[in-house]
Amino acid sequence: MTESDIWFQDPYAAFARGRQAAGPSFVPALGAWVVARHDDVLEVLRRADEFSSANTLPRDDMLPEPVRAELAGSIGGRPVVVNSDGPAHRRYRAPLLAGLTPARVGQLVPWIGERAAELADGFTRHGDGRVEFVSQYTSVLASETIGRLIGLEPKDVAKAVDGTTQALIMYFFPVGDEHKAEAARKFAEMRAMLDGYVRARHAEPRDDLCSALVAALAPDGGELTLEQRHEIGSNVLNLFIAGFITATPLLGTMVLNLLRHPEQWESLCAKPELIPAAVEEAIRYDTSMQSVRRLTTAPVTLAGVEIPAGATLLVALASANRDPDAHDRPDTFDITRPPNEATTRHVSFGHGPHACVGAQLFREEAQATLRVLTERLPNLRLAPQEAGAMGRSVVPRDGSLQRLNLVW
């Protein structure tokens, strides 16, 4: 197995090796300095001025010319909350914080519970004692939840999911230009759809996050300029993609790891009061956003290691979550961990100014999922030979979980 294979196929083994170093290590296979230890990860995430999030996502102008041509004229491609710093970041983040307060998320909780129950009832009532859980549950609940918050009509959620898939192909997948160009054509359709929502919410605001972004980023109330449409559309699109590609695999790996430990699944079914702790342990043990990228704005020293200006850092959240200096028995999945360790020490949702604004929303989706499954399907188990099909990435472990066959 090559160095690249280790990082992509067995990231936790690679992270463990990285934590043994005195500080960050440059990994040629990744073209980045890997920050693997818990305290060093926190340090980078706190020092946003020196470890920048700007330009850490792929841009349209980085794509091959035939692919860029398919995006020409579409709305989007501007900085968003996850790849901006300073005043711009605070400007994009403020309406999201206002729209995702505990009270606002709490208003959505009854719907999340009802939808989780409907999905589970659907595959138990019409199935044959088996289900492919990613396509029939996790991707549906994740996409419909973030779509509802944004204000998408139910019929448009599937279009947004397809557009997200096309964006991942276009920006990240190792396919040819022709395939990427086809993905770009479909992604441009998603951009156009969301631009339609932006213009509609500008004309008639509603109680949704799309309207909140319009009001915050175009506060003068006049006719939207083309640049405002680009900026708002980019941030609405990013909100959907982020909510979908993080929650979908997290819900799946949560169930996968519980069923890999049947004694803990049985305990959870018998003691539903353990559900919040089980969610936190699942998030810590195998988070979908394995790492985040940062760029140094000047020469810096981290844990005694000198790193040049303009360097790319891979800040390994998943490694911090398995650091023995931060967690007892870090490679053991244990839903009975003390609450203070489970909730305050993991960094699955980041830390500092870029900490995930949707953390509570995901917790509600995850808890609703476990309540429904433990009540309705206590005999749930992995299908024979099922191990879960994981993607090849050390940023989002993406797809991340691409398939999960369950039986009961």
Automatic annotation (TrEMBL):
Keywords: Heme, Iron, Metal-binding, Monooxygenase, Oxidoreductase. Pfam families: p450 (PF00067). Signal peptide: none annotated. PROSITE patterns: CYTOCHROME_P450. InterPro entries: Cyt_P450, Cyt_P450_B, Cyt_P450_CS, Cyt_P450_sf. Belongs to the cytochrome P450 family. PANTHER family: P450, PUTATIVE (EUROFUNG)-RELATED. This is Cytochrome P450.
